[in-house]
Amino acid sequence: MSRSGLSGGSGVLAFLPGADREAVEGGLGSNPRWCETAGDFLAALTERHWAAILLLLGDEGVETAVVRRVAEAAPSTPLFLASRETSVERVLAAERAGAVALLPHPTEAERIREELLPILQEPGEVPVPVAAEEDDGLVVGSSPALMEVFRVVARVAPTAATVLITGESGTGKEIVARSLHTQSDRAKRAFVAVNCAAIPDTLLEAELFGHEKGAFTGAVTKSEGRFGRAHGGTLFLDEIGEMSLSLQAKLLRVLESGEVERLGSDGTVRVDTRVVAATNRDLAGQVAAGRFREDLLFRLAVVLVELPPLRERREDILPLALHFTSRFARSHGRPMTSLSREAAARARNYPWPGNVRELRNVMDRAVLLARGGVIRSGDLKVGAHAPRTSPRSDAPDPGYAATLSLRDVEGRHIRAVLERTRGHMGEAAEILGIHRNTMTMKVRDHGIDVRAIAEGA
Asked: pTM to 2 decimals?
């Protein structure tokens, strides 16, 4: 399809009062239907099945109540909203209506074309493939970043090298660790996982290295520990960055000697255990802050596998969504046949701060709640629609995990706004309500690559 215009479908229905048609029309294709008034727009809404709807929100446009009516009247039609004011309220209104995107108004034809082109190139519905047997969302996708992970895993799996896996929460670090195990000659032996953040430090040493009977209060039997259980296999140390410095020193000794000393024992036990560790923390920064041993970091990161966040491999989002839809449809006994084009676009455009884990949960819920065999945009409970994680019904929903630091929240929000503006610093600063110079300083402080965001948009 030519970049000079959009074709196919039943055209775009547009209500953009005050817009410069010559400046915008090139982005709407050869057969847009322009409406002069809200009444004309509502009448035209039922004329045919439109390929997409572009609608001005507020001011001389329509109010949020009308937008909801539009979304209900044409639930399978991709809805794009424009607004002169880009505020939190407008963003939430767009989210609640299931809009694919909220565009600035006025805007240029190229920006509109970039938003609409992927939608109009897709079929009206995206079919769900036959369910795969494996429960491994990581292996779905073909982005260059994911291909690099595959290549590293394939090369390293047959060896006994220690591996450090880094990446945000929900990117699939344990899946990579299991892949390293199952593709090695240790696959027939045990894969033992330990969440270092979930076990109090006073107990973690005994859990890892084992203990003799009577070594401490409550030690009524002898334990071989996780290293012993993983003998001949693989020990996965998740959230390794949460381990105390004293225990880090003991772990380093085991990695270097291949021997563990159980609590309450005077001797050591030889273990043949491959160690794979994972963290969502910046361990180099932890080393600089004196919270992680540099020698242990070097010992763990013989091979480093960096898992990219889902927002940095957007071409994998739709295949993943279809994979999870297929699998959950089978497990729940639901006859799901497809995703609507609008739902597919919404999934692709959402930043997925919770990564693959969040996408998995959203598709699980969508399969359960969807009416009929098609998942619609409104079935994807993301952003403002996401359910609260707190058991208190009266607790406010902050829209992010309550375990994050204020700095992490700020960094994630700035990145999300930049992704929404496709790396446009000026627009992002306006949304955030800060000066452009302040924006530049914060981007530098959080280490955000604006150029990569703009190129990947």
From this structure: 0.60
